[in-house]
Design goal:
With about 230 residues, the chain is of the alpha+beta class. It is about 55% helix and about 5% strand. The protein contains nine helices and four strands, in the order βαβαββααααααα. The chain is globular, with a radius of gyration of 17 Å.
Length: about 230
């Protein structure tokens, strides 16, 4: 197989790339990275010394591509499918890139701050940082609620890279910092995302690992029931 994706099935940023791959039915091999295993970690570090996942390795070119948005753009350029994750129109493309960064930086990053703080050792917690992360999510939710009025997907009628970024961020953020009852456009958008075949596949692959999620007790019962059914 030409393409190999280094990932972990529970990692939200890996979900973003997987959605893009599954939307286009792009053939690839997956290699699960276990950071507790020296050999598994070394295999990743050999390809990308920064040590972050996901990364994509293209055997045909010998290239290693890091960073989720760059991976998706690389796939469209070199392994295109019927679904264009980035539009051709320059103005539409700017909007996709804007909302892609928005979901990564202002939803996924603060969500991860909250999650990681829960598993820090005693005496190493950062309550001020968690408070800031929750405030960021509150602001992001308000902006998404306003933005999604009358929209089907993140930037309009077409599913794009921005939606790939939105799903994992909103999925986990809604667990650790739930939406308010008034945020109906936001909630409806997440539900619409959850109905995509690519998203269902990604979450089905993540379900066996939900027991590892630090906020497992806060996960809606429907997610856990699906994990054991």
């Amino acid at each position: 197989m030409t393409l190999t994706l280094y990932l972990h099935p529970l990692a939200s940023f890996c979900h973003k790339v997987l959605i893009a791959l599954y939307e286009n039915e792009t053939a690839f091999d997956s290699r699960i990275v276990n950071f507790a295993d020296a050999d598994s970690a070394a295999a990743l570090l050999d390809k990308w010394p920064i040590g972050k996942i996901p990364i994509l390795h293209d055997e045909a070119t010998g290239r290693t591509i890091p960073e989720t948005s760059i991976i998706i753009e690389y796939l469209q350029a070199h392994y295109p499918g019927p679904m264009r994750m980035l539009p051709d129109d320059p103005e539409e493309l700017l909007q996709v890139r804007l909302w892609d960064r928005f979901y990564d930086l202002y939803v996924s990053v603060p969500m991860q701050k909250i999650v990681i703080d829960r598993i820090r050792p005693a005496g190493a917690h950062d309550p001020h940082g968690v408070t800031e992360a929750r405030a960021m999510l509150d602001q992001a939710y308000k902006m998404i609620e306003a933005h999604m009025q009358g929209r089907l997907w993140a930037t309009g009628d077409d599913f794009t890279m921005a939606d790939c970024a939105a799903l994992p961020g909103l999925f986990f953020a809604s667990i650790v910092h739930p939406f308010t009852a008034e945020q109906q456009a936001l909630s409806t958008y997440l539900e619409r995302l959850l109905q995509r075949a690519s998203v269902k596949r990604v979450l089905a692959e993540a379900q066996p690992y939900f027991s590892m999620f630090p906020y497992r007790e806060a996960m809606p019962a429907r997610y856990l029931e699906a994990a054991t059914s």
